[in-house]
From TrEMBL:
Organism phylogeny: Eukaryota, Sar, Stramenopiles, Oomycota, Peronosporomycetes
Feature: compositional bias, Basic residues: 121-132
Protein source organism: Phytophthora rubi
Annotated PANTHER family: INTEGRASE CATALYTIC DOMAIN-CONTAINING PROTEIN (PTHR34415)
Region called Disordered, residue ranges: 100-143
Protein name: Uncharacterized protein
Length: 143
C-alpha cells in the first residue's frame, strides 16, 4: 500500500514542525525545497528536504530515477458521475464564460445521470439506515 514511502524517504528528509504550517509551496526550478507559511500573511520559511551525502544534496536526476524505478504510475480515478452531475447543475452557472467549455462542466449523458441518481439514492439509504441504528442505540442507552 505505502510503497512510495521507501523511495521518498531515501531521497528526502522529514519536514520539521509540519503541523505548525498551513500553506506549502514548491517551485519546479528548485525541487526538494518547500516554502511554508503559518497563515496567508505569515512569514515564509523555506526548508530544503533533500538528503545530503558527504555535504552534497541529492541530485534531481537521482530522485527522478529513484521514483521511476520504484513507483508505479497512478491510475486515473474512476469517473464520479454524481460529482459530474453536481458540477453541471450547481457549479457551471457560476463559472466564467471562457471556462465553461472545460470538459469538467459538460452535461452528463442519460446513462451517467442514471448512475449518479442510483449512487445518490444508495448513499441516502445507507445514511438513513445508519441514523436509525444510531437513534435505536441511543434510545436503548437511556432506558
Amino acid at each position: 500500500m505505502k510503497v512510495f514511502r521507501t523511495a521518498v524517504q531515501e531521497a528526502y528528509k522529514d519536514m520539521k514542525s509540519v503541523q505548525s504550517y498551513q500553506i506549502f509551496g514548491m517551485a519546479t526550478d528548485n525541487p526538494g525545497v518547500v516554502s511554508c507559511r503559518a497563515g496567508p500573511n505569515g512569514e515564509v520559511v523555506t526548508q530544503d528536504l533533500r538528503r545530503s551525502f558527504d555535504s552534497i544534496p541529492t541530485s534531481d536526476e537521482k530522485v527522478r530515477d529513484l521514483f521511476e524505478s520504484h513507483l508505479d504510475p497512478l491510475q486515473p480515478p474512476l469517473p464520479n458521475f454524481e460529482k459530474k452531475q453536481q458540477m453541471f447543475n450547481k457549479v457551471r452557472m457560476y463559472v466564467p464564460d471562457e471556462f465553461r467549455s472545460d470538459p469538467i462542466y459538460d452535461a452528463p449523458n442519460d446513462e451517467e445521470e442514471q448512475k449518479a441518481n442510483e449512487a445518490k439514492k444508495a448513499r441516502r439509504k445507507a445514511s438513513a439506515k445508519k441514523k436509525v441504528a444510531t437513534t435505536a442505540a441511543e434510545a436503548k442507552e437511556t432506558t
